[in-house]
Write a sequence for this structure.
């Protein structure tokens, strides 16, 4: 019941509508991996302790109100002892216990939840994630696979996520899989994701990082190992050659109007590294890390003037002639 209530509220978030992701809301109380389950357990422990303390407080309050007209029935020494025990000793014991549990969880979260499984699994997966204002660069070391705002993982396998930032502090958070981990410049922080069930999990930036912190979303797609391997191989491949005449014209526009100075499309001369790698942009779940759906109309608007869609992002309006825009969009849509 309580979970359904929380989920119902979270489901109202417009970002969920935007994402078009079917499935569960990104609630920490609906864990789908060992890291998140540990955090949820700690949350429930704190909740029940708080509920218990509150209940005891209410009982004592009612008792005190009921006795308020009886005078002289409590000795001064008893009153002092009561205040010391309930005001200092009991809170000290409870808070120390909770602190110890928190320390245990923090140290457990630094390692994969199943070290033996991680050591035994052939080809344990590592993902490198770099935070940018305001998107996530995703690489799979040892392959050419580079994408943005989308991480695929094999289901049931501990995946090491290596995090750093290109600019300001960000925080990587997949509520159903892992607690928040900060991205700090000049440093690599490591966290672990183990998705126990296939599905698409919402992730977000959990540290205020500037104007578009709100649109710094990503998804984690957990799928069977074979599908994951196929996805990595696909993303690592060079972009397909344009099929149609419109796509071919669009590619020329892309290479000539300055897009290529900031974006890479592997297999073409475009090798810019300022913005996201666009080799598989046609496949992505959104534009602008959750700012717009990834469809023909939204993509046209984004290219023409993304500042209207996501003000402050690093991409200036593009001087693409109106008659060339449909070709450019057709080319970008074909990159999958
Ligand atoms: Cu990145 Cu908030």
């Amino acid at each position: 019941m309580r979970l359904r209530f929380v989920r119902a509220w979270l489901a109202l978030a417009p970002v969920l509508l935007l994402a078009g992701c079917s499935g569960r809301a990104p609630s920490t109380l609906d864990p789908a991996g060992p890291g998140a389950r540990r955090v949820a357990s700690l949350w429930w422990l704190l909740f029940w302790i708080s509920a218990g303390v509150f209940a005891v407080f209410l009982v004592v309050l009612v008792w005190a109100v009921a006795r308020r007209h009886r005078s002289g029935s409590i000795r001064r020494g008893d009153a002092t002892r009561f205040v010391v025990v309930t005001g200092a000793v009991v809170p000290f014991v409870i808070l120390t216990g909770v602190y110890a549990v928190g320390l245990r969880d923090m140290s457990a979260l630094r390692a994969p939840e199943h070290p033996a499984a991680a050591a035994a699994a052939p080809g344990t997966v590592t993902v490198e994630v770099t935070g940018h204002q305001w998107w996530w660069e995703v690489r799979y070391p040892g392959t050419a696979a580079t994408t943005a705002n989308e991480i695929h993982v094999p289901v049931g396998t501990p995946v090491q996520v290596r995090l750093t930032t290109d600019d300001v502090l960000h925080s990587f958070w997949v509520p159903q899989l892992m607690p928040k981990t900060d991205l700090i410049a000049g440093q690599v922080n490591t966290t672990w994701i183990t998705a126990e069930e296939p599905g698409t999990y919402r992730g977000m930036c959990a540290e205020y990082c500037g104007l578009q912190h709100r649109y710094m979303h990503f998804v984690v797609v957990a799928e069977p190992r074979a599908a994951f391997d196929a996805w990595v191989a696909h993303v690592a491949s060079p972009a397909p050659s344009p099929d149609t005449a419109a796509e071919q014209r669009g590619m020329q526009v892309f290479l000539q109007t300055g897009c290529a100075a900031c974006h890479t499309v592997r297999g073409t001369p475009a090798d810019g590294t300022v913005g996201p790698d666009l080799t598989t942009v046609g496949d992505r779940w959104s534009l602008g890390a959750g700012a717009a759906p990834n469809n023909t109309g939204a993509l046209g608007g984004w290219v023409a003037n993304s500042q209207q869609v996501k003000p402050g992002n690093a991409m200036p309006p593009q001087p693409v002639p109106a008659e060339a825009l449909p070709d450019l969009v057709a080319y970008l849509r074909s990159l999958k």
Q: What stands out?
A: The chain has ten helices and twelve strands. Residues 5-22 have pLDDT under 50 and may be disordered.
